[in-house]
């Protein structure tokens, strides 16, 4: 009976060790394939969202390609004109709420798309004050950036987790 308890204990410890090792093996650590491209897209992201945070629609317009498709699991699909109108309406609704976007530290990933541009993946938070209380929504996003004529433009945006 005592040997059965020792065997059960040993098997339990082995299962826990293997499980812990598997968890460690499944941990994903992102490392950019192209650090220069990563830095460029991180900069483009900051330009886009500095404009968003300051509600500067004119600068924000320049970040999107005229053929942009914006997919939002909370609002559907929009083209360039609708996307800009949506931002304009959002800014008017949030003139005093302090609406801003913050990139979640360590979440940004950038992948090259040879001959086209890059894919940006990350998590961000949208923060505003509602009824005297700070509200934070955390969402994932994907942006497809095209490099053309010396400029980076977002051609596809996927915003999920609303």
Poorly predicted parts: 9-18
- Write down the CATH class: Alpha Beta
| Residue share in β-strands | 35-45%
CATH architect. name? Roll
How many β-strand runs?
7
Helix content: 25-40%
Return the average pLDDT rounded to an integer: 88
The shape is: globular
* Secondary structural class: alpha+beta
What is the CATH topology classification name?
Nuclear Transport Factor 2, Chain: A
Number of domains: 1
Radius of gyration: 22 Å
Structural description of this entry:
The structure is a single chain. The chain has 162 residues and is an alpha+beta fold. The protein has one domain (29-160): Nuclear Transport Factor 2, Chain: A (Roll). The chain is 40% helix and 38% strand. It contains four helices and seven strands, in the order αααββαβββββ. Strands 1, 2, 3, 4, 5, 6 and 7 form a seven-stranded mixed sheet that branches. It is globular.
Compact overview of the structure:
With 162 residues, the chain is an alpha+beta fold.
Topology:
Blueprint: H1 2-26, H2 35-53, H3 57-62, E1 64-72, E2 76-78, H4 80-93, E3 100-103, E4 109-113, E5 117-130, E6 133-148, E7 151-160
Parallel strand pairs: 1-7
Antiparallel strand pairs: 1-2, 3-5, 4-5, 5-6, 6-7
């Amino acid at each position: 009976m005592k040997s059965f308890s020792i065997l059960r204990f040993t098997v339990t410890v082995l299962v826990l060790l293997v499980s812990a090792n598997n968890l460690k093996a499944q941990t994903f650590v992102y490392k950019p394939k192209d650090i220069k491209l990563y830095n460029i897209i991180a900069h483009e992201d900051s330009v886009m969202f500095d404009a968003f945070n300051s509600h500067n629609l004119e600068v924000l317009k320049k970040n999107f390609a005229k053929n942009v498709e914006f997919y939002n699991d909370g609002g559907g699909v929009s083209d360039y004109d609708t996307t800009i109108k949506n931002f304009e309406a959002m800014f008017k609704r949030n003139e005093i709420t302090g609406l801003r976007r913050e990139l979640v530290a360590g979440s940004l990933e950038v992948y090259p798309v040879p001959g086209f541009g890059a894919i940006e993946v990350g998590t961000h938070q949208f923060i505003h004050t509602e009824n005297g209380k700070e509200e934070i929504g955390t969402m994932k996003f994907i942006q497809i950036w095209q490099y053309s004529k010396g400029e980076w433009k977002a051609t596809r945006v996927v915003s999920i987790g609303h």
